[in-house]
Amino acid sequence: MERSVAIEDYVRAIYQLQQQEKPVATTALARRMNVAPASATGMLKRLHGLRLVTHEPYAGVVLTSAGEQMALEVIRHHRLIETYLAQALGVSWDQVHDEAHRLEHHISEALEDRMAEVLGHPHRDPHGAMIPPKDGPFDPPVYRLLTQFGSGARLIIREVMDEDAERLRALGRLGLRPDVVVTVLLAEPEAASITLGIDGLAGVSLVVERSLAAALWVDDLG
Q1: In the predicted model, is pLDDT for residue 78 greater than 70?
Q2: Where along the chain do its domains lie?
Q3: The domain over range 5-63 is classified in CATH as 1.10.10.10
Q4: pLDDT at 202
Q5: C-alpha pair distances (Å), 72 with each of 22, 25, 67, 145, 196
Q6: Tell me: domain 144-220, CATH 2.30.30.90, correct?
Q7: Residue 207: which residues within 8 A CB-CB, separation 6 or more?
Q8: Interval 161-201: pLDDT, tens
């Protein structure tokens, strides 16, 4: 099957957008890829010809099983590379995303297997995202954004959005990383910030910009 960096990037973007909406609208895909709608439409026709998506004009697209398999392979490569860079080479969590994006399209299956073995077959990357298995189904967990919760909520951070290096550095400085348990001390809908307490740091509160808090996927601990 024909493969290229562009094809793999589009297929992954469709997969990720499908987690919020299905079918995926062409306009949403164009925004995600930062291209004009006409460019996205042209690529969708190409993907349809390769049987990677089913595409109905004015309705949107859905990945076929082959498209989903390709998307999960690229995502697995990306997250394994991030984990290898962080754990084996000591690259900081704000730098691994861009490096992994450059490498993910080019590693062999043998190298993927070797990295997984060296790492002990990890289940999560440095940002908390689940790493798809090499074979078998992948059912990613569903989390909610921290900004969806009000005062009094006790939450555990499960995953941090990884695309923005500056944002990751800011969250790292605040200690807001995967598996950290926080309590929402104050959250008003129109306020520009949210006040959090962190388990284990009694008497300490963090005033976090809402734009930073919106990068945190969490579970409610009740």
Answers
A1: yes
A2: 5-63, 144-220
A3: yes
A4: 73
A5: 17, 20, 9, 23, 34
A6: yes
A7: 193, 194, 195
A8: 988 999 999 999 999 999 999 999 999 888 899 999 999 87
